[in-house]
Write a structure and sequence with these properties.
Strand content: 15-25%
Structural class: alpha/beta
CATH superfamily of the largest domain: TPP-binding domain
Bound molecules: nicotinamide-adenine-dinucleotide
Strand order of the largest sheet: 3-2-1-6-7-8
Order of helices and strands: HEHHHHHEHEEEHEHEEH
CATH topology of the largest domain: Rossmann fold
CATH architecture of the largest domain: 3-Layer(aba) Sandwich
Oligomer: single chain
Length: 261
Amino acid sequence: MEQLIRRAAGILARSQRLVVFTGAGVSKESGIPTFREAQEGLWARYDPGELATMEGFRRNPRRVWEWYAYRFGRIEQVTPNPGHRAIAALERYLPRVVVITQNIDDLHRAAGSSDVIELHGNWRYYKCLGGHTGFTRADFADQTDVPPRCPRCGALLRPDVVWFGEMLPAEAIERAFAESSTCDAMLVVGTSGLVQPAASLPLYAHRAGSPVIEVNPNPSDITPLADIFLQGPAGQVLPKVVDTLATITPGQETGFPAACG
Ligand code: NAD
């Protein structure tokens, strides 16, 4: 493992355009459950068709609203873990680090990452079924309706997160594909690689000839194309990678061919 970490740090040390692509796993050590892990995953206990689709919301808006209120209440209480902080710390050593995340928890920014592309929205924002966007809780704090109504048109409000079957925010996914195709290395952390189109981003980096480093306690759908698989929890593995990176002078590492892309 130590040798793999050194090779990974060597790739990072040479990177001029790094993309870090993250999923629910990076936030697990902060206490936010992942979606798909059989034992603990949210979907093992709840039906995504009822709770994370527009059809489910139309059938029972109160249930969906209350479920998100419960989840957001948990998110509100957590803080970034050593994995998020290590990703943010990469900016101290590398000229350009773009984080692309499937998470809605905002923990990368809280940890200090400065360029974060959110593919699935952000828990702090709400939109209405009438098409108005950009609301926060303060905008409906005085309402007793569940769900509350749009302050502008009276339509139902919903979380501004991407539900199953919905399009990803166009600007975010376009930029994510562009960054993934032009990065010179990609670090993939804590994603099962099952939710498309986000899951295909590592393929774009790989096809462009850029090394892909994966951190995950379990092999994922991305593992077969990873050049280096660092098996373990992000909060334990990533600080070691960054500590090793801190000891490397760019260009001196010989364990892996120069990053290109
Ligand atoms: P996923 O649940 O499908 O996969 C989670 C992955 O994380 C698994 O491969 C698992 O092995 C790995 N993992 C578990 N513990 C880890 C750790 N300590 N360190 C690193 N990896 C770990 O999640 P996904 O791939 O992100 O895709 C599913 C959807 O879940 C996404 O659409 C995302 O929007 C949503 N989601 C987001 C949050 C959040 O905002 N924090 C939480 C749950 C789900």
